[in-house]
Structures are given as C-alpha cells and as structure tokens.
Amino acid sequence: MNRPILLTGATGFLGSRLCHSLLIAQPGDIHCLVRGRTPAGGERRLHARLDIPDELRHRIVVVPGDVRLPRLGLSEVDFRELAATVGAVYHCAASVNLAADYERLAPANVEGSRNVLALAQRGEHHLHYVSTLGVFLAGRAVGLPKVTEDTEPSWESAGEIGYCRTKLVAERELLASGVPLTIYRPGLVTGDTRTGECSGSDVVARIIRAAAALRAAPETTGEVCVGSVDFTARAIAALSLRPDAAGRTHHPVEEQAFPMSRLFDHLATAREPLERVDVGGWHRRLTEAPDSSAAFVLLAVWRAARHLLAETEIAASPAFDVTQTRTVLADEGVDTSVLDEPYFHRMIRRIITP
C-alpha cells in the first residue's frame, strides 16, 4: 500500500507544479502543509493556486501549519499523527527574496528546514529537499569554474546573497542529520511551457521589465542553467520515486546553459528593437532612471542579477556539468522542454502585460 506524502510549499510557483506532478507519478494522497488557521481556509488558498483536474483533487489533504514554527505549528498530537501517517517528506517551501539578508530569511529557510527535519526524523522518513544552484552563485570567484552534482558548495561559493546562504546552511544541516536525503538544485525556473506563466518577482522577470522600460538591453556573455517550471516539477517527481534516490543530489535543468543574450533577442522580436549597451553602461542607465519602477525593483536585486549578466568575468556563473542528472532523467523518460521563440514570447507577454 502506498503511504501518503507530505509536501510543503504547494502554493508556490514550483511547489504547485510539483504537487501536480506527484499526483500523476504516484498513487498516494498528498498532505499539503498550507499556512492558514483552518483546513477550509487552507484548501481555498491551495486550490486557487493549483491547476489540477477535479478527478485528482480528492487525493489532496490540507494540513494548516507553518514551517517556521516548532512542530510545523501543529499540536503534539497532530504532529505525531502526521509523522505516523506519511511515508516521505518533500520540502519545497522557502522564502525566495533575493534582496533580503540571511537573518531575515533564516526563520523560513533554515529554521523551517529544521522543523521539517524534525518530522522526518520522528517518522524515519526519506526527506526530499528542494535547494538551488544558487549555492554556487559565486563559484567562479572562489575557484570553481565547473560544477557537477558531486561538487560540494561552501559559504564562499554561495556568495553574498542571503537566500543562497540560507539554502546552503539548510543543505548542510540536513546532510549532517543522517536521514535518508535527496537534494534537488534547480537553476532559474522559467515560465510554464503551456501558458507562459512565471514567477513575476524573480530576477529574470525584473531584468525583462527593466530592458523593456529602458528600451535597451545589456550586451552580455552570461549563460545560466534554466528549466521550465513544468519540466522542473516533472523531473523532481521522477527522480524522487526511484528506489536509489536516497543519498543523491540532482541538478534538474536543461542540458545546455542558456545564453542571456538570447533572452534579449526574444524580447526584441516580441516587442521592439532594443539598443544594446555593455553591462556597466546598462547598470548606469538603471541608476539614472529614478522614475522607472522596473529599474528600481531590479536594482534591489542587482547583486544577483550581476552574476546572470556576467558583469565581470569573475562574476559569471560557473559552468554546470549535469550529465549524471540528465542520464537518470533519460532512463525515466523525462524529456526536456522546447524553449523556442514562441515559448519565450508567451513568457514575456505574461511578464510585461499588466
């Protein structure tokens, strides 16, 4: 008999798709930890976010709670019962704020992971942790020009971004705990291949809005690892259900890094021609556009954006060899998404259209 799954972060951009993918990939119910005081309130919030067929919805069980709180905000009785009910734990919840420092994000991303770990330890469950390739954001600057799934991240490789640092600390603590653990490190999670829907507050969306507002784009050699949100969710679900999943680290991204210059090519064909300027000059234009809200919100996360745009050679992201993950996904029949011009046009329209 297949035991239920506990999933955190099911109302998030990636977590909602992961919930859908897990419903399709395995027959068990999914208990979704959702912030809210009552199951009914949490259910309304969850179903407003999920695009799931009615015939699958009965397998979703809403658990009102909060990863930031001891016992996930549950009573001791409910916490013990949940640990005894589920058979595996998927921790996808996180505060993704690239402008915030470590101290601000630690309650959700570090303490939250500890609280999820406590439940996994109580039930001796396999824990699936969704981290980020951002733990290597500054890899090139610390002597890591190339990264594989076996490369160990460090405080230095995570750079100065609070979010990346919190994910690194959580990874280390979960690894040290000794629970059966699988780590998934997505790269930039881009829009849904069908609708173009994307996380409107992420750094790529901010870059696109700023380029459109300035009618200029940076001339960049930066390359980034990407994966559409639906591909990333399918990949994590498939990788997690393999009998050899425990003890593995996976990088569920497209096989080839994506040149950021191509993003601006797609923006130009979707909207209008863009002037191209060097990254330093583009940054100056951002700082000299005080009336542009698009410029303001990008400058707030410039410490992250400069890595994507390779503001300097040392700031460029390292190269990622994802052969191990791609080999396993091929065995599971998980194909990559088609990230062609129509796809990016759909995504750009969703980002720019009010």
Automatic annotation (TrEMBL):
Bilayer-spanning residue ranges: none
Gene3D superfamilies: NAD(P)-binding Rossmann-like Domain
SUPFAM superfamilies: NAD(P)-binding Rossmann-fold domains (SSF51735)
UniProt keyword terms in alphabetical order: Phosphopantetheine, Phosphoprotein
Taxonomic superkingdom: Bacteria
Domain Thioester reductase (TE): 7-236
Pfam families tied to this protein: NAD_binding_4
Name of the protein: Thioester reductase-like protein
High-level lineage: Bacteria, Bacillati, Actinomycetota, Actinomycetes, Micromonosporales
